[in-house]
Amino acid sequence: MSNLILGVGEFGASKTPGDIVKTFALGSCVAVILMCPKTRTVGMVHVALPESKINPEKVKTRPGYFADTGIPALLKKMSTMGCDPNGRGFIVKLAGGAKIMDPNNTFNIGKRNALSIKKVLWKYGLGSVAEDLGATYSRTVSVAVSTGEITLSSPGRGDWKL
Amino acid sequence: MTQRASKEEIIAAIKEVPLLSPSASQLLQLTAKADHELAEVIDIVKCDAALTAQVLKIVNSVAFGLVHEVTTIDRAVGYLGERVIAGIALEDSTGALFHKELHGYDGPKSELWNHDLRTAIASREIATYAKQPLNKDVAFTAGILHAVGKAVLSDFLTNSAQEVLSGIDADEVIDYLAGERELLGIDHTEAGYELAKNWELPEPLIAAIRYHHTPAAAPDEYKSLVYAVHLGCIVAMMCGSQASDSLQYHLDQNYAKYFDLSSEQLAMVMLEVNEAFDTLRNAMTDAEETN
Question: I need a labelling partner for A68 at 20 to 30 A (CA). Which of A3, A28, A78, B71 fits?
Fold first, then answer.
């Protein structure tokens, strides 16, 4: 049993019962959680920005940074663990994408992240069955691989299930 | 909300905070001036053996991945840049303050330093989009120091986070600053201002600390700098923060008077914040571990 901690722009997956897949302090970033019921694999990518076109070089070192490259990278990783390469039959959940108070269009990156992620998921015929997006608080996300249970927490707001 | 302490108690606590080291103080004074030479920065570092050792450890840490070891302080300062040198001196001088657990904001150890470092990088990057020339090094240093008041208030705010957040959610207070004032009669910008005066920081840094959440109230000559730090603080919170006050402040839309910043440019700023933060934090952590 171990914790798979994902930083900004990182992705990973585990099928080891007892493992926890975790990412800390999502602000405007979004955690895309993919669960493959057939192999009981849990994957997560910590998406920071909507589109990779702003820095194609970064894609080479950290594809998970962007929605349009992070989700394909996670699917590829999960396919090496016996999951369907297009995510067929996957359960998708999303968390994060917080906004600041009084955001204007420029600063509402959380919303643009969520929209971009959904657009990419649609290309694979996937949609989220549960999401905790937006609002004005940061979120830490933990997923228990054994049960697929997702726990969110935020300083001063306790924790809750997704 | 019930008041937990008086402003007078907070001011008394601020007077107990240790002064900056002479090197940190001199570096902050020097780098805030428009007309100074890198050689002057090097001279200050050279006169402080502990700071010299720390700077060399950091520049040679694996995080920077230099092929050849840097053995002279001249080269180290040239490579890291004066803003990073000022940051190292500050952390060396006031590490306990910046790295303590932020009980009052439900934040873990080093959360304040992590937020301040992200804000510094973001402020520096945002300064490059200023409509009028703005000193990026001063923006970086102002970012490092901007939230220092929280280190003082935290001790008086233990177990208050839920109460403040409930007050904001119920529209009883407009933001976290107002919550701090309800509980203590003073907010972290004013506490930081009092501390900055005790430390005899340069005026631009004092202004950034005092007005980073209310930039419109800053003196005109420092408004551009203060707006840079205002935006830098917000970007840092968007990049992730483990404190209860994260994202609980308002964006002043008048920043557009001082900066041309598109959504794509903001995304570039966030990218740089995350990258530079990882490099700097890893370098400083490597250096600490070898101490």
Answer: A3
